Amino acid sequence: MEVKYDYDALAQDGRLTLPELPGLWKYLPLLPLQQEENIVSLGEGGTPLLRCQRMADIYGAQIEWYIKAEHLNPSGSFKDRPSSVGVSAAKEAGAEKVVIASSGNAAAATAAYSARAGMECVVFVPESTDPGKVIQAASYGATVIPVTGNYSHSYDMADLCAKRFGWPNITSTFLNPYTVEADKTVAYEIFEQLGGRFPDVVIIPIASGPLMIGAYKGFDELRHLGRVPAQQPLPAMVGVQSEQCMPITRAYLNGDAQVHCWDGTISTIAGGISDPLVGYENDGTLTLQTARASGGMMLCLTEGEIWQATQMVETKVGYYCEPTSATAIGAVSKLWNEGFLKKGATVVSVLTGHGFKYTGRRCNILQPISKVEQLEILLKKTQ
Amino acid sequence: MEVKYDYDALAQDGRLTLPELPGLWKYLPLLPLQQEENIVSLGEGGTPLLRCQRMADIYGAQIEWYIKAEHLNPSGSFKDRPSSVGVSAAKEAGAEKVVIASSGNAAAATAAYSARAGMECVVFVPESTDPGKVIQAASYGATVIPVTGNYSHSYDMADLCAKRFGWPNITSTFLNPYTVEADKTVAYEIFEQLGGRFPDVVIIPIASGPLMIGAYKGFDELRHLGRVPAQQPLPAMVGVQSEQCMPITRAYLNGDAQVHCWDGTISTIAGGISDPLVGYENDGTLTLQTARASGGMMLCLTEGEIWQATQMVETKVGYYCEPTSATAIGAVSKLWNEGFLKKGATVVSVLTGHGFKYTGRRCNILQPISKVEQLEILLKKTQ
User: Fold this and answer.
1) Which of B36, B49, B72, B316 to mutate to test the interface with A (most CBs of A within 10 A)?
2) pTM greater than the 0.90 cutoff
3) Chain B: nearest CA to A205, how far in angstroms?
4) What ipTM score was computed for the predicted complex, to two decimals?
5) CATH number, residue A26
6) Would B162 disulfide with which of A19, A102, B79, B169, CB 3.0-4.6 Å?
7) Domain of B253, in residue numbers
8) Is the same domain home to B160 and B201?
9) 3-state per-residue secondary structure call for chain B
């Protein structure tokens, strides 16, 4: 299911943005909501596009590099866009309750927007979900239900409730068209923040990939709307996965037309993109097709590369982010060394989740340093 | 030490804001930085001002109520404003290293902006500081040094380093004038977000209180600059503390001219405002004077009231916040019932820290609900 617009009418209308509306809702004419009063907003969108030249220099990448800070959305992840639009649409449809399946970020986001809307929210999470993410979702007052097995089982439970009880299913895969519509706004913002031009490459951490599809549609719409010349190529969309769970990257590397689900045990610090796609492999295929059609690609990083990239963005940029996000940073080093990134290219890496989402697990990673050692470090530094 | 400006010249100049600059830096002409290239920004400021009418209705408070979402700043707290301005000033002064004492939020913020600036950062934290906050600060690459005893000991250590090694001390108390200057911008934003008017009351969680002093100065400057009529009264500034640590509120209630430090053990879920003010009681006195001069007041909440307010803002608004922040919410119920808030008054509550800052401790508060119970809740809800 996809939402279509009459771009010619919109282009003539001229008033594509309504600056008086909050966050991403200034793009209301390009979003699938009829009435302004149904907007459910917490101030999502309008995230910073931060130039990060020092990090490019460290990687030796001669590019113009930006970070799109989606981790700075209200609930701490890029999922606030689809949740804001999805819950608003549910409100417009007269729903009093929504359901969602999520392995983390989308659960918290949907719970937050449901609370804002005064709706009940039922969240199915895999039993293995990070406690911090469960606590966040529950804190908003959502009914959080752990489900045994992998994410696909939670996905099925949400689908079941949606069908049996008629609750809107906000699960942010291609199941819900509002997801892609909301994710478009990331592209609109990047275009505006670059002063009215497209980047050459956009790099996104990928689970099933709605954000890549949405962003690509956003750039395509800007061209339809005449914001850039009709012959202007769209940005190359690059997706990053973990070596531990890379169903889409595997298909890309094999030159397959179809994505197949990922079997085998998964152990990665990039939980947000740890999705075997069991039962909805076609979502992955759509993402694969987008990466190829855009002239982009799919790649993967090792656990070591992901953790190194996490420390890189935190210590050289000052953004605290979960390892999943950092895959969009680590990918740049690889893409530059492999010659995929051209000299002088404008590159945007999207950070999808805040470091807070991962703090709990860090306790096992960061070695607590004793006071004595700390003082030695201090004295060494002050010599 | 206080920074002064030639308001007449500024008012004539006209160009008070530079919209092309990021976050709070659009107010550069009113900030103590000479050169634009010394700006160290992560996109701080420009936080949402969210109308929260449903919560007002629940409290039965007939007011026009807004939340200023300072917890949505990049590192998760309002301390990003003073850290951005403080580190930028340190950069302009040619410093390569900064030092700070903090019980949490300011540590993470200063570590983040130091990383952004490529400066070393030394952070002294009380040994009892929440591990999550220590992990965040350390993740940015700062040298984090736990100090025994209460916050005052960490404060002394930072002071010592600043004097001995000449490092700029970013400790965000009145010790550092840039703090108050940065905090002014909260007032500018509230004024603009209300469509060019002052709120009647601004409610702020208070440790020593630089945010209250800064915001008050900001409103006062807007009047000096002719943005409001000269006879327009400034907002009443209300400060909130925990019953467990209320040195300033105690002085207010006793009608004292001076604030005295808080002795005795402190046990509160509002760690961000748990400051006994030992050794810098005068900072508290300045805050007390501001609350009185503005026609505002100081009050305190019990632990139960604070936790209830935390759940209120999370489940009725959709903002995940640390209990410290929620004191600005719970205060409204008290102030309305006591008749301090007039019918129809425009009230702004400032949320200072993100709920992520507190997730770790919630594990002990939230009772994990079994799957069976969850399913019962679900079924009850679906009848």
Assistant:
1) B72
2) yes
3) 20
4) 0.92
5) 3.40.50.1100
6) B169
7) 49-73+190-357
8) no
9) CCCCCCHHHHHHHCCCCCCCCCHHHHHHHHCCCCCHHHCCCCCCCCCCEEECHHHHHHHCCCCEEEEEEHHHCCCCECCHHHHHHHHHHHHHCCCCEEEEECCCHHHHHHHHHHHHHCCEEEEEEECCCCHHHHHHHHHCCCEEEEECCCHHHHHHHHHHHHHHHCCCECCCCCCCHHHHHHHHHHHHHHHHHCCCCCCCEEEEECCCCHHHHHHHHHHHHHHHCCCCCCCCCCCEEEEEEECCECHHHHHHHHCCCCCCCCCCCCCCCCHHHCCCCCCCHHHHHHHHHHHHHCCCEEEEECHHHHHHHHHHHHHHCCCCECHHHHHHHHHHHHHHHCCCCCCCCEEEEEECEEHHHHHHHHCCCCCCCCHHHHHHHHHHHCC
Asked if residue A281 is part of any domain, the answer here is yes
A113 to chain B: which residues are within 8 Å by CB?
Answer: 318
Do A359 and B141 count as a contact with CB atoms less than 8 A apart?
A: no
Mean pLDDT of B155-174: 87
Chain B residues close to A366, C-beta within 8 Å = 135, 138-139
Mutate to test the interface with B, among A374, A377, A379 (most CBs of B within 10 A): A374
Residues B90 and B61 in one domain: no
Residues B131 and B155 grouped into a single domain:
yes
Q: Using the beta-carbon criterion (under 8 Å), do A356 and B136 form an inter-chain contact?
A: yes
**pLDDT band, very low/low/confident/very high, at A367 (cuts 50, 70, 90):** very low
Q: With bands split at pLDDT 50, 70 and 90, how would you rate the model's confidence at A179?
A: confident
Verify that B150 and B292 share a domain, yes or no. no
Total structural domains within chain B: 2
Do the domain assignments include residue B250? yes
CB contact under 8 A, A381 and B143: yes
Task: State whether B215 and B316 are in the same domain.
Answer: yes
- Cβ of B359 and A363 within 8 Å? no
- Contact (CB<8Å) A115/B375: no
**Same structural domain, A146 and A205:** no
Residues B331-342: pLDDT tens digits? 999 999 999 999
